[in-house]
Every structure is written in C-alpha cells, then in structure tokens.
Design a protein that fits this description.
The complex is a heterodimer of chains A (about 130) and B (about 450). By secondary structure, chain A is α+β, with helices and mostly antiparallel strands. Chain A is built from four helices and five strands; from the N terminus they run βαβαααβββ. In chain A, strands 1, 2, 3, 4 and 5 form a five-stranded antiparallel beta sheet that branches. In chain A, β3 and β4 form a beta hairpin. Chain B contains twelve helices and 17 strands. Chain B has an eight-stranded mixed beta sheet. A seven-stranded mixed beta sheet of chain B has the order 11-10-9-12-15-17-16. In chain B, α8 links the parallel β9 and β10. The C terminus of chain B is likely disordered. Classes of the chains: A alpha+beta (about 130), B alpha/beta (about 450). Chains A and B meet through β1, α1, α2, β4 and β5 of A and β10, α9, α10 and β11 of B.
Chain lengths: ~130, ~450
C-alpha cells in the first residue's frame, strides 16, 4: 500500500463550523472541491461505529451530494438500524469519511460568505480581527 | 498486607526517569485497560524504584506493561524479606506455592541480580549465589532463552548507603515495559522536529494519562511538529492537530534542525512524512491552520482526548490573531499571494482558561484533557491550577526545568455535560505569577 500524504477528510469537515463573529447559522460550511484524491486507509469498523454518534449525519449527506463526483460512495439519508452489523454501510461511511481526501478547495460560511481556503490538503481557519 | 482472593502479588521495578510520573502513569493505564490493581501507596516513595502490587494474573501484568513507559519490568513476587536471610527463609517456608518454579526437574532458568543504590560486585554476587543454594531448585540453569528468569533484588536506599539491604525481593519475570519506545521515537531520527518537540518518553506518558485506546479521536490544538500525536497514534488513536503557525502546519519555512545544510525545511520535514516514517499515516486525520482562542470546531462533544503543550513564551511565544497590519506577513515558497493576519502575544492566563473551556465543551463525557502548566517552584500552590466545573483534576506531576522554573503535567477528566448557559469562562489564577517570569516572544 502506498504511503501518500493525508489531506483534509469529510470527517474533519463535518466537525468544523464558521466562527465568524455574529454568525448564527455557520454550519455546515459549503465545501467547494478543486482537487480530490481517494487514498486507501485501513478499514476500522469499530472506529466508524464510534464516530457515528458524534457526526451530523444530515450535514454529511448534504456535503457528499454537493460534491457530485463519481468517487463519492452513496450513503443513506439516515444511519441504518444496528450500523455495527452492517458492513456494506460501514465500508461506504469509511470511504466517505476517511478515504476521500480534499487536496485543494475552499469552505464558505453559509451566512457571512467568509471563505476558508484549503491548500495542499490543509484548511486555513484563521479570521481577520474584524471577523472575530 | 493480606492478599485478596483471586489475586497474585507482583513486584514492579520502575525506570529511574521521571519518578513523579510513575504512579499516575500506572494508574492511568490500569484505568484505560479496566484492570484491577491494588497497592499500598504508603509502601511507595519516589526515591525508590520498587512497588509491590496485587493483580489477577500474569496476563493482567502483561497488558499493563504493554502500555507503560516508566516500568522496567514486572515480576511475580516469590518471596521477600527485610534481609537476604529472611527472604531466603520465606522462600523455603513457601516451598509448596513455589513448587511450579523450583520443584520441576525439566524447567530451565537463569538468575539476575539487581540492586538499588549500590553496585552488586563480584563478592556480593558470590554471597547471593551461596544464599540461593539453600533453596531447593530442581531445574537446569540455562543462560540463553531460559523458561523462567528469576531475579534477586536488593534495596540499599538511604544515605549514607547502608552496608546491608533493608529489602530483598525474589521474583520471576512476567513482562518488560515499553522502555524501547523512547528509542523508536527518538527525536534525532525523526523527520520533523520543532523547537519545542516533546521528549518521546513524556509524549507516551501523556498518551497514557489521556487514556488513549484504539479508535480514540484525539486533538492537539497547539500541534506544532505533532510530537504529542505520534504516541497517541501508536496506541491506536486517530489524531487531528491545529496550530496558528501556517509554516509549521504546512512544513515549510525555517527548519529547527541544525547542520542540514539548509536553513529551510526539507521535503520530509513535515508531519505527514513523519507519520509515514512511523507507519502511522492511516491514523493521521490531518491538520488545520487555526487559532485556539477562536476555535472553529462545532460546539459539540466529539473528542476522546485533548493532549497538548500550550505555548507559554519560553521558547515559543503564544499568539493569537489581531488587527491586520499595513505590512502583511507573506509566506515565501508555498503561495506567496496568501495574506496572513498578524498575530500577537496571547495572554498567559487566557491560554489556559480558553483551553479548559474548549475541553469542557468538546470532550465526550469521560474524555480527558492532558497538558503542561508552567510554574515557578517556590511560588506554586494548588490554588494556581485552572479550574472548570465540568472537569475534574486526576493527576498533577511536576517536572523541574532550569532554575526556578518547572512545569506540571495536569490530567483532567470531563465529569459533567457542558451547558453554555451555566458554565461561563474557566476560572484561573495563574496570570499574576507568570507574567513576571515568562517572556513573550514577539511574533516574527
């Protein structure tokens, strides 16, 4: 298995929000993808199961649909019953959360329209003084 | 001390490094692995490497030692006494219990001699061998790869050094601790190091304090060169980092390595290449450029642990974002068009107050916050410790730095759900003490 650099994942995107001063609805950040790579990551079903209750699933579905690339696996609109015994679902969630790497792109605050760039796989979440 | 039913007695020998961290690490690992471990705290002192503990069986001890970096080895305690003679007679008196080790003709064994605070010379070794002859050991001596490794440990603690040991232990090796990890993760061989990279041994102690388990989600909000995250990832955590320093996160700019022939970071001087170096790339979820004074994480519990070494101005000044300057900071080779807001010194007390608030909000219930607090040795009191209603302090160990300076490794556990209505800012009283001594570096 090749050891290629790790970039921003949708798991991280799901946990980030706009923190621009005064913004009420800064979540989820609108993700615009420039360059996307799919890199294999060891499948750890226990980790995915652990993460499910910590995710905002509707936001993940919305973001996955908005990317509109063939590399994005299909996931159900809601987390199925007993996900821990549903390997097909866990593999799709694994690919979406951990194997899809955003190399170049940006995230936009849905309310203030502040843009957070993603360069070389690393988002820049810094604000200017007047925004914070 | 009577032995509880179903338990066995073991001798733990600690390494000589970081004595004040030994018991907290052992207790944290026992809690992480949900292992029953009992001992008499009165029987232990940091000036002595021996601790007698009771645990269920050898497997329990092997699991514990698969995680501890401050334990040299664990031995089943076969006999002990306040002198060599009493230890030997205790072994003779307990022949029935020791029959599996000393009564078998086919078992191969080897003896090691360990002594604390006094060298065990040739004369003493001869005396020890002679004393051991009084125990009827039926097996065969084998120097290479014996079935059992027995140890006779003598404790000469005290000043002046006593002529006779005041504790003698006879043990059977069960497991060795993880002392080798400090070598595997040696900073000299690491692709990327920063000015304030953590000693690997301490980084592993921190991971143990943080109760890292396979599948834990861990954040370091002052990630620097990620020196705290390699140990967490090694124990199976998935790790994220953030830092206000764009160049460090991207692995560009000035190198912290001397004698590389270049003043700039090389192609492998970044955290991704370092996770790859250790085969931990699948556990590295990525890094962000972000300001921990204004966190960009959704305000919901998501992390199992926050493990960090906040900057406090001795080697790396704390910074936060301030008014854009007329002269923007421009970063060279990567993307020269990018504008960087200026950063300023981040108030010492605010760093810790913000960190506790952040942890109270972002940790799952039972999750842990582990970080260093700088202190002045003469002036330290427990009242200086930052406090938050949702977090309970579990461990507090001091490491002396130069002069009057020290730092304390603090371990907190989240014990109550965070309610933004009732839980305002964390209370901290550290500010006054520290602004006197700690220098704030002006940002470059």
């Amino acid at each position: 298995r090749s050891c290629r650099p790790r970039m921003m994942r949708l798991l991280t995107h799901n946990m980030l929000t706009s923190h621009v001063k005064g913004v009420k609805n800064g979540y989820p950040l609108i993700l615009r993808v420039g360059e996307l790579v799919v890199q294999e990551v060891e499948f750890n079903p226990d980790f995915i199961v652990r993460m499910l209750p910590r995710l905002d699933w509707p936001a993940l579905v919305q973001t996955a649909n908005s990317i509109g690339r063939p590399e994005i696996p299909a996931i159900p609109a809601t987390v199925p019953e007993q996900p821990e015994s549903n390997e097909e679902f866990l593999r799709a969630a694994h690919t979406l959360l951990l194997e899809v790497h955003i190399k170049e792109g940006e995230m936009e605050c849905p309310e203030s329209h502040k843009v957070f760039p993603i360069r070389n796989g690393i988002p820049n979440m810094l604000l200017e003084e007047e925004e914070s | 001390r009577p032995l509880e039913p179903g338990f066995r007695r073991y001798l733990i020998i600690f390494s000589s490094t970081y004595p004040e961290f030994r018991l907290p690490e052992l207790q944290a690992v026992a809690a992480t692995l949900q292992v029953g471990l009992t001992f008499d705290p009165q029987s232990y002192s940091d000036s002595n490497p021996f601790l007698v503990v009771d645990a269920e069986n050898d497997e329990t001890m092997r699991r514990l030692l698969s995680r501890t970096v401050l334990v040299h080895g664990a031995y089943e305690l076969l006999a002990s006494g306040s002198s060599l003679a009493t230890c030997i007679s205790a072994a003779q008196a307990d022949a029935e219990r020791l029959a599996p080790y000393f009564g078998s003709d086919t078992l191969t064994f080897k003896f090691d001699f360990e002594s604390f605070n006094r060298k065990c010379g040739r004369t003493r070794r001869a005396e020890l061998f002679q004393a051991l002859a009084a125990i009827d050991i039926r097996g065969q001596v084998k120097m290479e790869d014996p079935d059992e490794l027995f140890v006779l440990c003598e404790d000469y603690e005290g000043f002046p050094i006593p002529t006779e040991p005041h504790q003698v232990f006879l043990g059977r090796l069960v497991a060795k601790g993880q002392r080798d990890l400090a070598f595997k993760f040696n900073l000299k061989k690491r692709n990327m190091v920063g000015n304030t990279a953590m000693d690997p041994e301490l980084a592993f102690i921190m991971a143990n304090q943080a109760k890292i388990m396979p599948g834990s989600l861990v954040l370091d909000p002052f990630v620097g060169s990620a020196s705290l995250l390699y140990s967490c990832a090694h124990f199976g955590a998935y790790v994220l980092g953030s830092d206000i320093d764009y160049q460090t996160v991207h692995g560009v700019g000035k190198t912290s390595r001397a004698k590389t022939g270049s003043k700039l970071r090389g192609p492998k001087e970044n955290m991704r290449a370092t996770f790859e170096q250790y085969g931990l790339q699948d556990h590295f979820l990525g890094a962000l450029v972000a300001d921990n004074a204004k966190p960009s994480w959704c305000p919901r519990p998501c992390f199992d642990a926050i493990v960090t070494d906040p900057p406090y101005g001795i080697r790396e000044g704390a910074r936060t974002i301030t008014t854009p300057s007329s002269k923007p900071i421009v970063v060279g080779d990567l993307d020269s068009a990018t504008h960087f807001p200026r950063s300023e010194a981040y108030e010492f007390a605010s760093v810790f107050a913000d960190l506790l608030d952040f942890a109270a909000q972002q940790l799952i219930l039972g999750g842990r916050l582990v970080f260093w607090l700088p202190t002045i040795r003469d002036e330290y009191t427990d009242a200086q410790l930052p406090h938050h209603e949702c977090l309970r302090l579990l461990a507090n160990s001091e490491q002396c730095l130069r002069g009057k300076l020290a730092r304390r490794l603090l371990t907190y556990e989240k014990v109550a759900e965070f309610d933004p209505e009732t839980h305002g800012a964390a209370k901290t009283t550290v500010q006054e003490v520290h602004t006197k001594v700690f220098r704030y570096d002006k940002p470059g």
